[in-house]
Design a protein that fits this description.
The complex is a heterodimer of chains A (273) and B (315). Chain A is of the alpha/beta class. Chain A has one domain: Thiamin diphosphate (ThDP)-binding fold, Pyr/PP domains (Rossmann fold, 3-Layer(aba) Sandwich). Helices cover 37% and strands 11% of the residues of chain A. A 5-stranded parallel beta sheet of chain A has the order 1-2-3-5-4, with helices on both faces. Chain B is an alpha/beta fold. Chain B has 2 domains: 2-156, 3-Layer(aba) Sandwich (Rossmann fold), CATH 3.40.50; 177-306, 3-Layer(aba) Sandwich (Rossmann fold), CATH 3.40.50. Chain B contains 12 helices and 12 strands. In chain B, β1, α2 and β2 form a beta-alpha-beta unit. Chain B is globular, with a radius of gyration of 19 Å. The interface between A and B is medium-sized, with 30 and 29 residues.
Chain lengths: 273, 315
């Protein structure tokens, strides 16, 4: 993948949100808010020249690995993978259908380009650590990126993984957190506070970055910085439901059922802007 | 038996650089030789089973064959979701080596007993389950494990068990071994219950009751054909396991017999641990005896069944 010097996050973001909306219309369901929150993170990784992957050879040994540990964000991943050519676009409208490969959570053995089956939270960081360790054992130069949700960091296994990443000084591992500060029920601060979040990761031995995702170019800069001999985490300050005013921070859109005609019209109207 | 198991991993690792050993927080000195000789294939990762299973999955997805050893109950209960999804769904070459399967840790109490490990692992698609009867069979199982294409749970017994397995029948994962030719009574065993079945069979023989034994070192995939072939010749079939009677070997045999539609089905009984947490300490042997798993009690139960008398289910 070649780096795009001027990645048009706005245009690509709108395009991806439109594709997601089409999928939700087709399936009558989906984690809309969770997906809209992390689109710019995935765009930076896949279209910003960060990940070295080959859609024609998804099992390429030297590829970089991306694990979407917050598997319920799959709706954001699918249009991007399809656009890169990992699978045909026709699959998108078969989302959650019995004859499709794209489920509500991504499956490794079904979808080219998906590195691990996620959806049960708290698994991806450890899987990524295993890949990073094996890569080092095999003297491979690939990097591993794990995208975590903030609610997901409630899981103890995330912090077990953090201890291990630090123990092994996995400079080839980057965790990226979609910190939209809301989980399914309510605010993270109410359900299970994570603050001081950055300090926790520092204390666990990570090199910590924070990125305001109103300016996603900043995330790209961070991801292109050479690692400092230890695992990295980028805490991305995001907005759940980002990009459509009435979905932003609205928890009834965390997982949404059938959309009304009015909702569809309003979403498309906003995405035309 | 654990010693032979881990030595076998070390041997495999010497000739296959993709074999990786992971221990949790094992006893001091365990696998020191491998640590010295093959430090790049050796890891001791602490008391963090959920993480280790996930990391093992990641390594297996990157071409490694991972052998992870810790206490059987911690490797089966604590990290069940990781095992089911990260290993089972992806069908990865990770081997879970569970020390102290069954009642081995009797003095340490119910937190340390692995009495439903086989049932838990059996419920996971793609998971193979092997429970060798002695150190020799363990070594054969470990050699076979290298090429097995999927996750596997290996139940390790206490150690020091009498060697009763023989090299002649060979060892294939999923293929049961007929240890005694079919008779009036058939014992179906797994793990160290084979030794007790052999003793019980000798006691029965003295009373003129002939007794066959089919040993299932592999509980899954279950060799239903071998069990059925022997069972169809017997009047009474007893499954013997150091495990709850729910969901383990006894269930495999029961399901097989119930669905076989035999014209003259044999009487059948599951011998094992009842559906309750053990309420005594003592020793593995004392708990086995309490649950009717001594050779004498097994023989007595078999005698009753051969005479056509059934005692209450689960009794």
């Amino acid at each position: 993948m070649t780096a795009s010097p001027t990645l048009d996050f706005r245009a690509l973001g709108r395009e991806t949100r439109r594709a997601i909306t089409e999928m939700v219309i087709a399936a009558g369901r989906g984690h809309v808010g969770s997906a809209f929150s992390l689109i710019e993170i995935l765009l930076a990784l896949y279209k910003g020249g960060v990940l070295r992957v080959d859609p024609k050879n998804p099992a390429w040994e030297d590829r970089d690995r991306l694990i979407l540990s917050k598997g319920h964000g799959a709706l954001a991943l699918y249009p991007i993978l399809s656009d890169l050519g990992f699978f045909p676009k026709e699959e998108l409208l078969k989302y959650c259908r019995r004859d499709g490969i794209l489920g509500g959570h991504p499956e490794h053995l079904k979808i080219p380009g998906v590195e691990a089956s996620t959806g049960a939270l708290g698994h991806g960081l450890s899987i990524g650590i295993g890949m990073a360790l094996a890569g080092r054992m095999n003297k491979k130069g690939f990097r591993v990126y794990v995208v975590l949700g903030d609610g997901e960091c409630d899981e103890g296994s995330i912090w077990e993984g953090a201890l291990h990443a630090s123990k092994h000084k996995l400079a080839n591992l980057t965790a990226i957190i979609d910190y939209n500060k809301q989980q399914s029920y309510s605010d993270v601060a109410e359900v299970l506070p994570l603050e001081p979040f950055a300090d926790k990761w520092k204390a666990f031995g990570f090199e910590v970055f924070e990125a305001d995702m109103d300016h996603p170019e900043r995330l790209l800069e961070i991801l292109k910085t050479p690692p400092a001999g230890k695992p990295r985490v980028v805490i991305c300050h995001t907005v759940k439901g980002k990009g459509v005013s009435f979905i932003e921070r609205n928890l009834s859109w965390h997982h949404k059922g059938k959309l009304t005609d009015q909702e569809v019209e309003n979403i498309f109207n906003e995405l035309e802007i | 038996m654990r010693k032979r198991c881990l030595e076998a991993v070390y041997k495999l690792a010497k000739r296959n650089k993709d074999v990786v050993f992971i221990g949790s927080d094992l006893g001091v000195g365990v696998m020191d030789a491998m640590k010295k000789e093959l430090p790049g294939q050796w890891l001791m990762e602490g008391v963090s089973e959920q993480h280790i299973i996930g990391a093992a999955a990641g390594m297996a997805m990157t071409g490694k064959i991972v052998y992870f050893n810790t206490i059987a109950t911690f490797i089966t209960r604590r990290c069940y979701e990781q095992t089911a999804i990260d290993l089972g769904l992806a069908s990865l070459k990770v081997r879970l080596l569970g020390s102290g399967g069954g009642l081995v840790y009797a003095p340490l109490g119910p937190t340390h007993l692995a009495t439903e490990d086989l049932a838990l692992m059996r419920a996971i698609p793609n998971m193979a389950i092997v429970a060798p009867c002695d150190a020799e069979e363990m070594e054969r199982a470990m050699i076979a494990s290298e090429s097995w294409n999927g996750p596997m749970y290996v139940r390790i017994a206490k150690g020091g068990e009498a060697v009763v397995s023989k090299p002649e029948p060979g060892f294939a994962i999923g293929r049961a071994i007929e240890c005694r030719a079919p008779g009036d009574v058939l014992f179906v065993t797994t793990g160290v219950m084979l030794q007790r079945a052999l003793e019980a069979a000798a006691l029965l023989e003295k009373d003129g009751v002939s007794c066959g034994i089919v040993h299932c070192h592999t509980v899954k995939p279950f060799d239903a054909a071998a069990v059925l072939a022997a069972a169809s010749k017997a009047r009474a079939v007893l499954s013997l396991e150091e495990h709850t009677i729910l969901g383990g070997l006894g269930s495999c045999v029961a399901e097989t017999l119930a669905e076989a539609g035999l014209e003259k089905p044999p009487l059948f009984k599951r011998l094992g641990i009842p559906d309750a947490f053990p309420d005594e300490y003592g020793s593995q042997n004392s708990l086995m005896d309490r649950y009717g798993l001594s050779a004498e009690k097994i023989a007595a139960e078999a005698r009753r069944l051969a005479e056509g008398r059934l005692s209450p289910a689960g009794g």
